[in-house]
Batch of 4 targets.
Target 1
Amino acid sequence: MTTVVDYGTYQRLRITLDGQGLLQLRFGEPGTLPVANARMHHELAAVWRDIDADTRVRSVLVASDGKGFLAGGDLEDVAQISVDPEARLHVWQEARDLVHNMVNCQAPVVCAVHGPAVGAGLALALLADICIVTPDARLIDGHIRLGVAAGDHSAMVWPLACGLAHSKYYLLLGEELLGKEAERLGLVARCVPAESLHDVALSIAKRLAQGPRQAQRMTKHALSHWLRAALPVFEASLGMEMLGFGTAEAGEGLNALRARRAPKFP
């Protein structure tokens, strides 16, 4: 049975599918840093269900056409969920969907990352099956800087990828990781020169599209049980993040980000 999905409803994502089954998911505009605003966050959470349902898809390549990969949430959206419990519940559900849907997407996903990857952008990068970065890639889990728990994905993914000690260091301090260091720690698959990023990522995605479809999907399904076993950790961390948005610490973190200054947490 063949299922064909129409991706025309997506506004912030540019989705193309070639005759070999390689789906490219791209976003951002040259010269700008894409931001995961409310619409982008919704689409990133929903698109993986469509990709999984589309029987034509054999592999996925995710990349940004902007001057960086993808920044975190729009500050006005963050301010809204800080004061509006209904908005907070909505974001909680979408953040859950983004992680669960990527984990359960059967097609192998390759992600090409340059420049900043923050918040939902970082989750998108590190939940990919194969993440390729450049030396100037900046992997930033900014939750602690904002004054909330690291809830998007990191409490689940980072310890599996680079160990508990490194995870605690980077997530408790909110320190950024450059591409080469992320590769050394095992957080990403490869670090390649900036001028090679697109070609390397595209080559890997094409190889996957030409490989044995069912064998790849069954291998991914089995390996993804490591992530599924850690989903209770993710659920706890995401719940704590959402609780944190109602605290004075989150208020100070947001004010500091708006003023481009260091926070002074109460």
Target 2
Amino acid sequence: MTSAIQPTVIVLGPPEARESTRTDVLTRLVIAYAALLPFQVEVSKMVRFSVGDLVLMLAILVVPGQIKYRKETWSGWHYGLLALFAVSTLMVATKTGSLEQYVYLNKDAGLLFLFFAYALIASSINGWLRLRRVLRAFVISVVLQNLVGIVAWVASTRFGIDSILVGDNGLRLCGMMGDANAYGGLLICALVICEGASFGRSPLFKTGFLMFSRITLAAGLLVSFSRTAWIALSLVFLCLLFTRFKTAIRALFILLCGSAVTMLVMGRQFLSLFEALAFRHEVATGEGRTRFDLVSTGLEGFSKHPFFGMGIGSFIAQEGTIVHNTAIWFLTEFGLIGVTVFVGFVLWFFWKGRVAYRTTPEREKPVVFGLLLGYVAMGGMAMGIEAFYQRHWWLIFSLIACSYSIARRQRRMRVVYAPVSNDSDSRSASNV
């Protein structure tokens, strides 16, 4: 007997369409970390911790088994960075016979916290939906804090009401970061992520919230009076002019609108305040040294110890302040070896982000583009502050690595099935 057996054809859509909407405990903790990351508390003059760090401690207790090693999100530069800090710490301890709290708490323990947050995010984010949720949580949290901060800044400058959200004698908005420059970097990250991920068929936010975020974040960035942040934003605009000209013009228009609203609220008082703060003499310490003086001092230290540097924490121990430039800090305290590891570490993420953008589905390209803009913005911030320990920069690092991992995995899984006609079905029938 001959019978035609119809073959069973399983048609799978693209991997991104089959992504589960289920949110597990680890993902919830990562979302909570991203949302709480901007809220920092000062423990002492030299120590600040983020409320989000409590989530990391909770993860150790709740989901230690869910933390996985995803090879695509790690590189040799990660391990080189850990080895660099360990060797430099040992060198300083051997040379001085002791370790300052700044070294083992701020630098060493701080780096371990950043690495653990990186591992936590890399373990959880295995799909575009989860990555979008983390980004939304981060941006919404920054927007809400900034909204309260703007109100606090107006109350401080117009009515003399003190607030922890306003620093420098109540004149500059600093949020809960404790520093106006660091806060400016936080605002830029949220702003450029919104702007970069605003095009395409599936933007990160809808038009209403997107417009609100643009205006309020621009206003907050203006009244932070962070010239470092303004320079970093100009680098982002330069990138946008060459990649998405219309987006750059639109973003510039929104920034001008946010500035105009701020000026209308403050009136003439704002112009005098802007002139005083925006054109202030750049002094990094109470001794009258500018940041250029500190960079020059750091380079002198490097010239005396070119290969291994002065040792971790040595600059602040001698000068009483930090270098205010991330690359120069690595060059001064870790030497040529240290700055090579740092540059390699940072450029690795740029390369992976570029690969992710080229290989990711068209629907998700805006998200990766927004992350790359945030990367550029923080690179600009690193020229004026020691941005290496900024948690939002590490959040961008980890999400870029996750984007690359997701795009790489889905490219391997993506299979295109040609339609099967009835004629071909009959030809493939079996004889029994």
Target 3
Amino acid sequence: MLLRIRFTRTAVVVLLAAALAVVASALQPPPSAAAPSTWQKVDVRVLDHKVIKPGESVTVSLPVPSTATHAKLVIAGQESWRSSKISVCPGSKMTSRCTSRPALTTPVKKVAYAHVTVDLTSAGRKLTVHSSSASTSVTIRLASWGTSSGAVSTAAPISSAQPTSTPRPTQTTRPTQSASPVPTPTPTPAPAATAAPAPAPTTAAPTPSPTPVAAPVASTGQPGPGNTGVPAGTRLTVHEGDLKITEPNTVIDSMEVRGIVWVRAPGVVIRNSLITGRKLESSLSVVYAGDPGVSVTIEDSEIYAKDPTPHVRGIIGSNFTLRRVNMHSVIDHMAVTGDNVLVESSWLHDTLYYEKDPYYNGTPTHDDNAQIAVGNNITFRKNTLSGTHNAAIQVTQDRGLVSNLTLDGNWINDGACAVNLAQNKWGPLQGVTIKNNVFSRSQVHSGCAIIADNDTIPQVSLSGNVWSDGKAVGSIQGRETGQKGGS
């Protein structure tokens, strides 16, 4: 006997709705834990300049307790020969959903970084990192972890490509370089801003009352986005306009200065601060320490020009110390015009560059990580130097003798030649030590790690320097004394 069942239109609609609800439920991702309201700061690297090949993945374990539901990470990708998407996924496997939402995209031969919050509820304290298109050096810093309860429907990871401090300006696109058969670098002109500065500061000397912050966790790794600059979580007090420091031993802590910092007293300390400069119409620097008798120490801070221009440098002067400083988006990171300079554990990267620079008669910019006009007792120790076209270290010696210059344990990249020692009319440099540095093979003039006048070469102590592939940097490229050298 055939059993016939008749459905009304209403019954069909009800059954269809129920079926769709079941399917939707099956497709819905499981709920994740609500984001924590408090976080435990740890500040530790879990991946340190690991080269990930195109299409490959690396899985790392996070040093967090089993109760942790979220982790905040700082991701950096660099040294890609072409643009590559870096995906960061919770767990030990990559998924198409994760790779469709990369944490960052690396530019060619430059650094990009992002802050990422990862949901760990189903990750088992594992993290998998993937590079899409090019071998990329990836560094990951675990900033903090949190524990929470409840559920939200937002999938992880949730990323932001902007740092937690004031956003960086857009960088000038770098043209493709063509190598010349013989390096003929030209010493860069003396910094115009070392004369009496034209604009006078409009703000009086402040007496800031900074909010105390914890000292950053020390790191022995290569300086970069995870261990330089303003420590994560620092609350900054905004100072609009120029800041003129006239009282000896003034301490500036946890401040965002939206103008020029004029150091006009000895013993000044600036820490945990962001200095962004202002719009310039003549040559100057974001920090000026060029007056006689002044001195300044800058630590755990970021310096850059929020208004990009051919007129701006990072710091000009002498008697200054930089530690764990993140400096970028200026023509030269520094112009040394005197004695007693120490730069250590800092990240100097991504200079400004112009095809037609008014300071070079409409020719391309001669940008350097450091330009040294004169001075004694100058040391660069354990820094990352990158992103220049002229040189990482350019000695012009156009104001007097440079002596007791030490480059020790740095990661040195780019430039026409990476280190350029031009003696000019002042005779051979005296007491130069270049040791234990790692050079990348990214110079315009292939293989030119160091170039110097022939008279200066005997004054240089060279030891322990290697290329990034491990081969020794065994010699200095010479040129006839009196020749011009640079880009």
Target 4
Amino acid sequence: MKQTPKLRRSGIGGSDMPAILGLIQSRSAVDVYLEKLGRAPGFAGNERTELGNLLEPVIARIYSKRTGHKLEKMETLRHPEHSFIMANIDRRIKGQDKGVECKLVGAEMFLYSGKWGDEGTDEIPMEYMIQAQHYMLVTGWAEFDVAALFGTEFRVFTIKRDEDIIRHILQSALAFWICVQTQTPPAAVSVDDMRSLYPASNGLSVVADDETRELVQRLHSTVAEIDLRKEIKELLEIQIQDKMREATILRGPEGEELCIWKEQTSERFDIARHAKEHPETHAEYMKETKTRVFRRKKVKQ
């Protein structure tokens, strides 16, 4: 079932929970919070998710052929006590209290991530494990299969219900939904989170308390240390480059590569030239963006 924005904002789904628990680099709890309040559009999908949606029926058919199970689609499910906890499962095995999640896995994630185990095990990425446990929280079921297509290779993983994980998911969902209802943001974990929560300034001032002043001093000290390390890094690079001079590769005694110093070509759009040669169209391609910039001010000690 295709979810509408209104439906997505009405509760916490299985794909939301890994982000709420901090398991996804590209999406945080703050992102989910803003989406639920309608202050952010939410993830609209990309080429990979579109391909995954197109191949979901194919993966389901392969699973049915492999296991002999007949599958059925289901409408959005909700937790019997906490209706804001939702589940949109891909398929249910007919006649069984067991679901199936269909996953299209990119070759890079499969080969190099080390997060996928042998068929029949429960060795899958933690975000998918949490998603399956979230669905078992909603449905009360004891098992979920994850049917994964890796290029031309197909594997089925079986996830058993884990009460400790489910209890943690429930507690996290309850706490997060209170944040949404009271419009109290969850803790920010990145600079991007802070920019999303507070995208514009109001021109006013706030007075720093002792704790905040201490944070500012620590920031100054940290930046000074980073600057010093950058200077040391540059000095070391200069000394090594002086040993290499025109050479491209610096090798160790066993022939191993230690450093490479060679030309690199890149192309960049010449904005100034375009403006000069095509002034009549240049303005059409200029896009104004606003970003809130954070700067430190030096204070006399």
